[in-house]
Amino acid sequence: MWKNFNFVTKYFTKRRQRYITKTIAMNQQEFQLREITYQDIKDLLAIEREVYAGELPWTMSAFMAELGSKAPHLYLLAAINGKTVGFIGCRIQGTDAHITNVAVHTAYQGLGLGRSLIEETRIFAKKNRCETLSLEVRMSNVKAQRLYRKIGFVSQTVKKGYYDENNEDALEMIIDLKEE
User: Fold this and answer.
1) How many C-beta atoms lie closer than 10 Å to residue 63's C-beta?
2) Which of 33, 76, 135, 155 is the most exposed place for a label (fewest CB within 10 A)?
3) Tens-place pLDDT, residues 94-132
4) Which InterPro entries match (predicted)?
5) Are strands 132-138 and 96-104 parallel, antiparallel or unpaired?
């Protein structure tokens, strides 16, 4: 009986597809997009410290747990000349692909790197037959909200006291992928 059950679970369980590293050109610079490994976590923490004024929204253990998760997920970094300058994380939850975090070093913001990282998660979401792509953003982060709206996200709900460190509210935003 258990042998049959194991066969069924293997057959219907989604196998994690590997991301194929790619190079993108922006502002006459070449960036490599590739999957994040455990060895990259220190670089991600450094970007968080720089972008979030010394704060660490995600800890090393949080990144390690996500990278080791059996749930379908995609964690990418953007690098130039081997230096990590941005990253994004996305996890599949039912029919939603949820962007867990995204950050681009301030020296590389405004080049389209954030948009490119989000587009990679959109492709990943569609491959996994998701109906929505979602994220939360701080109410005070108007610059990011503007970018997300340009990409196609629409505001949904305000999550009161969402961010632990200062009890700031979050704005939930989504893209309806069924309409694409």
Assistant:
1) 23
2) 155
3) 999 999 999 999 999 999 999 999 999 999 999 999 999
4) AcTrfase_RimI/Ard1, Acyl_CoA_acyltransferase, GNAT_dom, YpeA/RimI_acetyltransf
5) parallel
User: Alpha helix locations (H) across the chain?
Assistant: 2-12, 41-51, 60-67, 113-127, 142-151
- CATH 3.30.470.20 given to domain 17-135: no
Catalytic residues: 136, 148
**Helices 60-67/41-51 angle, 10° precision:** 130
Q: Write out the two tokens for 6.
A: 């194991």
Alpha carbon of residue 62 to chain centroid? 14
Quote the radius of gyration of the chain (alpha carbons, Å).
Answer: 17
Amino acid at 151: I
What is the tally of helices (H) and strands (E) in the chain? 5, 8
d(CA 172, CA 117): 19
Q: Are 141 and 173 in contact (CB under 8 A)?
A: no
d(CA 52, CA 49): 5
